[in-house]
Write a structure and sequence with these properties.
Layout lengths: L1 E8 L6 H12 L11 E6 L5 H16 L5 E8 L3
Antiparallel strand pairs: 1-2, 1-3
Keywords: ATP-binding, Cytoplasm, Ligase, Nucleotide-binding, Purine biosynthesis
Pfam families: PurS
GO molecular function, one term: ligase activity
Amino acid sequence: MKATILIRPKAGILDPQGQAVETGLGHLGFTVRNAHVGRLVELEVEATDSADAHAQIERMCEQLLANPLIESYEIVVEAAA
């Protein structure tokens, strides 16, 4: 099953990359606020159903892909074609 995981800083957590993007865009003449930089992870996992896939990916996020203290994540699972 295919999955997409969006990982981003939790609200209220300092995001230096987001601040750098915001500053850089400002220097280029763009007016932006609240820029945040995260990561997008795409993968395929062997699972019996979408609930099993979601549970596996939840463990992956907790153990490796995200830092649960400072990052939040969203998991989207779709059946492989």
